[in-house]
Amino acid sequence: MELNSNKVTVNKSAADVCTYLGDVKNFEELMPENINKFEVIRENAFVFGLSGMPEIALEIKEIDSPNTVTLGAISDKIPFTLIANVEAIDENTSEVELVFTGKFNMMMAMMVKGPVSKFIDTLATNLTTV
Predict the structure, then answer these.
(1) Tens of pLDDT along the chain (130 residues)?
(2) Of 14, 64, 112, 123, which has the fewest beta carbons less than 10 angstroms from its beta carbon?
(3) Is the dihedral of CA 3, 30, 46, 24 positive or negative?
(4) Could you name the domain of life of the organism this protein comes from (predicted)?
């Protein structure tokens, strides 16, 4: 299953966006309002919980500045990646799209499609305000 967020314009250079997303502490600012847990568990990893959903632990897998930041689930029970594709518009502006890719059975995919789509769109939208 692959889901894409809306593309958003960020008033930061592509390199600055990658640096920002490469610091896991910053993800707390991007989380939806219904967050009930956010904890940095390692320099490159965090766990978060949203109302009505299980806690999810993510870690930074790769940073290819200024183009992409790749995060992945720490647990292999729910294998997925979240990739921030960053494209420079000019030296102070960039466009960001989040891509969620997960390996789920058909039933699970149907259950998580709506909430995950909303989640990645919220992360992208909140990125425009930092």
Answers:
(1) 999 999 999 999 999 999 999 999 999 999 999 899 999 999 999 999 988 778 899 999 999 999 999 999 998 887 899 999 999 999 999 999 999 999 888 998 898 898 899 999 999 999 999 8
(2) 64
(3) positive
(4) Bacteria
The domain in which residue 15 lies consists of 2-127
Q: How many domains does the chain have?
A: 1
103-123 burial, b if ≥16 CB within 10 A, otherwise e? ebeeeeeeebeeebeebbbbb
Other beta carbons within 10 angstroms of residue 76's beta carbon come to 8
CATH number at residue 52: 3.30.530.20
Predicted TM-score (pTM) of the model is 0.92
User: Alpha-carbon distance 130 to 35, whole Å?
Assistant: 18
